[in-house]
Amino acid sequence: MTRHILLLFCLLLTCLNNSVQAKGLPLDQFGTLPILHEGRLKPMDSFARIQWKRLSGENADKNAIAWLAETIFDPARSVQRPIFRIRSEALKTQLGLTEEQEYYSYLDLIDAIARTKETALKLAAVETKFLSQQQIDFLVLHDNVYVYEQMLRALSAILPLNVAAPKEYSDKKNPSYLDLQKFAVLIQQKGGDLADKMGLVRMGGVGNELFRIIPPQWQSDGKTWHSPWVVINEGKGGPLSAAYLEQWKTMALSYRDNNAEAFIEATRKAHTLLDQNIVKLKAERLYSQINPFFWAKIGYVLTFIFSIFWLASGHHSLWRPAMVTYLGGKAFHILGLGMRIFILERPPVASLYESLLFVSLICVVIAFMIEWKQRKGVAITLGSISGFVLLWLSLTFTQDGETKDVLVAVLNTNFWLGTHVLMISIGYAFCVLSGLYAHFMLWMDKVKGPESRLLFVGLLMSLFFTAIGTALGGIWADQSWGRFWGWDPKENGALLIVLWLIWIIHGRLSGHITKHRLNAASAALLIIIALSWFGTNLLGVGLHSYGFTTGLTAGLVTFCTLNLAVILGFWYRTHILEKRKQQT
Fold it and tell me: Which residue of 52, 425, 465, 557 is 20 to 30 Å from 38, comparing CA positions?
């Protein structure tokens, strides 16, 4: 039954005989129209990219906004487009999908989704930790299909219906549900095909709250943004919201007629009606289009190539191109973080994803300052490695497509985000660079000279920032929760870094740790950082409930094991060399 209702609904809205495939319509202004999604006002372009990433698993590009326009304005074409990514063969078998493909359209899945709906409802009541990976994938697919259906029906109230209405109801050839709504009681009393189709459209709009494009100032409650269906069904609209929806209807008609001029004009009028400052929305769309962190990674890769050739060949002429690409990568890196600060109106770090962006930039800046003074190539090599690897690792935390999450109330304080969080993050950056530099020291078997002094300074700076940052975290917690952290994995992870640094620094000053052992212990700092930064999030307990992460266990164990093996390998080599020196 569900299958027939949904199919009929899509066909009812299409008017295929009057629709042409839209090609090359300018969607720039459309992409900056505001929508409230996940607690934050964002441009339509960002909403499109998030949904594209959610359904397809691919990083969105400029095609995301075109896909969204097709989905809301021309659902009949959208349901034929392969957008749902299914890679699990077991899930394909469970759904009865015989085609050997990775992407499926809504029409490909509609039978299987309807048939397995009851199973999905039962599994949804089970805690995630008791579900297998196949069951999780199964539920995710059902959720994705539900979200997609909400988008398909988002504007169904104002799209033209493929029905014939008596002239006393409407003189339009293909009236919309909204056009006929004022005659709803009369149509229902008379019954017939028109009443059935009106009821079908109405049923599709029940609970459709995803597409929140109507601002609160136009509504009777004046509290929050609402979707067109909520405004219509609950009677919360007014003259301005009706005029705004009329522009959306014009957009839909001009889109289906491939009328670029009319589409642009309707979009312009919609912006005029909103009368909102959309500078941040434009900035967010530009941020998505530029993708500054991608270009930053390109700059760091090029820097690494130039610097490696420089170190291997000794040609100082390679220093200039290495620095140019390094500065280019750093410029894009700063641009990306700066745009995020402007868009979100808060300090740059409030999540694991953002901590990777910020820590990588601090590593790059510190390495640049060292390189500018020494000009030996080692600093920018390590800076480019840390910058690229941490930015690459940040992609792990963008699987849902959204990287600008709204903070929970207790974290939404610019003072503590700008003090405790930034101090800890700067401390992480010094630790990362010190750990990498210690690996270089082990590789080159250096225990004296300026390199050794530079490493020790890096350890002192690491201790300074992590110790102060940890103390500030305790004060913040005391103000927010009424007590210091106690035994909380995240803060105790930061304390572990402090204790490790205190141990190796005091051991070196007291003479209990030799310079070779100092290099090895400093190199192991990368393991301590990884366990504190990511490992504590795998425990799933503690007050830092906003930072939990799953799926990183294998990667974390592999990193720690390989890093330990490298340190032991260098240590063994040094031990063998010392024995040979003693024998000679």
Answer: 425
Which residue has 């941040």 as its token pair? 280
Report the distance separating Cα 581 and Cα 584, nearest Å.
5
Asked if 438 and 395 sit in the same domain, the reply is: no
Mean pLDDT of the chain: 84
Coil, helix or strand at residue 305: helix
What is the domain range of residue 27?
A: 1-277
Contact between residue 321 and residue 408 where contact means Cβ atoms under 8 Å apart: no
Residue 69 lies in a domain: yes
- CA–CA separation, 521 and 456 (whole Å): 12
Say how many CA atoms lie within 13 Å of 567 toward its Cβ: 22
Tokens 């909204």 belong to which residue? Answer: 178
The total of structural domains in the chain comes to 3
Determine phi and psi for 173, rounding to 5 degrees: -65, -45
- Partnered with residue 104 across adjacent β-strands are 84
Residue recorded with tokens 């709906």? 117
331-355 burial: b if 16+ Cβ within 10 Å, else e: ebbebbbebbeebbebbbbbbbbbb
Clarify whether residues 48 and 70 are in a common domain: yes
The number of beta carbons lying within 10 Å of the beta carbon of residue 548 is 15
In a domain, residue 2? The reply is yes
Phi, psi for residue 444 in degrees, rounded to 5: -85, -5
Does one domain contain both 271 and 343? no
**What number of other Cβ atoms are within 10 A of residue 293's Cβ?**
26
Q: Provide the pLDDT confidence category of residue 385 given band limits of 50, 70 and 90.
A: very high
What DSSP letter does each residue of 325-371 carry, written as one string? HHHHHHHHHHHHHHHHHHHHTS-S-SSHHHHHHHHHHHHHHHHHHHH
Asked whether 386 and 363 are in contact (CB, 8 A), the reply is yes
Which residues, including other chains, have CB under 8 Å from residue 204's CB and lie 6 or more apart? 9, 153, 156
Hey, which residues does 34 pair with through a beta bridge? 43
Residues in the chain: 584
181: left (phi over 0), alpha (psi -120 to 50) or beta: alpha
80 close to 105: Cβ distance less than 8 angstroms: yes
What is the gyration radius of the CA atoms in the chain, in angstroms? 29
**What's the whole-model pTM score?**
0.86
**Confidence class for position 3, pLDDT limits 50, 70, 90:** very low
Of the CA atoms within 13 Å of residue 267, those in its CB half-sphere come to: 21
**Residue 384 covered by a domain:** yes
Give the percent of the chain with pLDDT over 70: 83
How many CA within 13 A on the CB side of residue 562? 7
Q: Which of helix, strand or coil describes residue 53?
A: helix
pLDDT at 451 over 90: no
Handedness of CA 197, 198, 203, 208 (dihedral sign): positive
Tokens 């992407």, residue?
A: 103
Pair 54, 118 in one domain: yes
Give the end of a domain, one of 375, 406, 437. 406
Rounded Cα–Cα distance for residues 261 and 253 (Å): 12
